[in-house]
Specification:
CATH architecture of the largest domain: Up-down Bundle
CATH superfamily of the largest domain: MFS general substrate transporter like domains
CATH topology of the largest domain: Growth Hormone, Chain: A
Protein name: Major facilitator superfamily (MFS) profile domain-containing protein
Pfam family, one: MFS_1
CATH class of the largest domain: Mainly Alpha
Structural class: mainly alpha
Order of helices and strands: HHHHHHHHHHHHHHHHH
Largest sheet: none
Number of strands: 0
Membrane topology: Multi-pass membrane protein
Organism: Paenibacillus selenitireducens
Distance between the termini: 52 Å
Main location: membrane
Amino acid sequence: MLWKEPRYAWILLGYLWVIGFVSSIGRFLIAYYQPELSEAFHMTRSWIGFAWSANLLLGAIASIIGGWMMDRYGVKLVMMISSVLMVGGTLIILYATNGIGFFLGYGVVFGLAGISGSTANYVLTLQWFSYHRAKAILLLQSSGSIGIAILTPLFVQYQTLLDWKIGYASMLTFGFLTIFTTYFIIRENRPPSDKEIQPKSMPSERVPIRQRWHQLRAYASNPIIIVVWLALFSCGFHMGTVEMNLMAIHQSTHVHETMMATSLSVLGILEIGGALVFAFLLDRYHRIRLLALLYGIRCLAFLFLFLQWQASPLLFSILFGVTYLSAVPGAMLVAGEALSASYRSVALNTSLFILFHQLGGMLSGMIGGAVFDVFHSYQPLVLINLGLAGVTCVGYFLLDKRAAVSSLQKEMNP
């Protein structure tokens, strides 16, 4: 035992963290090398955005299938299938000569590789950790951000030696290794009680169609749910813009490479620091008010990005970085509290919330490249992000005000 957990749990955590770290190469390459990829595959940036959107859509669908497969065949098999798909997609990209090949490799096969995704991390963490689950999940979430923070200055500093082909070749090598190491390293720790619980032990109740319709209307008209949907869509749109187009935005405004590398490293570091700070605050203070503040900070971040000052890249990275990883968990907590009072199971709604987040990312990926192709500038895209952050901030503020009024009325009329 080590810190009250099995030693293998920490070995597993390290292995999964390394996978997440190396996987961030793919995020970096698609963001940083858009001009080179466009030229190499004879495609427009809007086509790259279309491939990004397809990757997110197929990844969302594949993760649902992957979760179903994990319950029946185990996490190890699904992770190995994901590694095989990653190798296949990388090979297609390396040997393709046109945009169709890139779309097939990155958009389709890489998307299907999301069959494992974060689901495997979550399942294995729950199985092996009892006292440090939250810390383990946070560490796994930080792997990609740390990867971006380290890889960006590395590739910029040695750009004469490193290019997108070297990056994908590294992913190919690591993918082959992962197939074999996963087979020997991954072990599951399913409790015996899981096998004893059978679905047939749960009584089945038929709900009248009219009652279901009323429940659906009440659900869809709940102000908290509406704002959470908007917040997750906005967060997904912001995520798509930052991961897909931020480096291209800096390149289009002729930001110096040193400033670009510094700002992106700061972004990656503050993603982790901001997540820790907001995780502490969300457990102790009014969540809706904090989320309104969070999106207010994002408004300032995109305003600085739009103004194109000399320090705009760094200011954006600081302000957006501290909010990057906290919006989704915060929204989930708010929605969960709202649903728990009226519905039997909050977990059934999680996939719908994540879908709104993915839709935002898909739309951002599709619009970003098209905006540049039409306007030869990313300023309209930045304005859309600014508007979404502003509307979401107002939505959370109105929810907070509504909750304060309701609380006051209860005190006056006990």
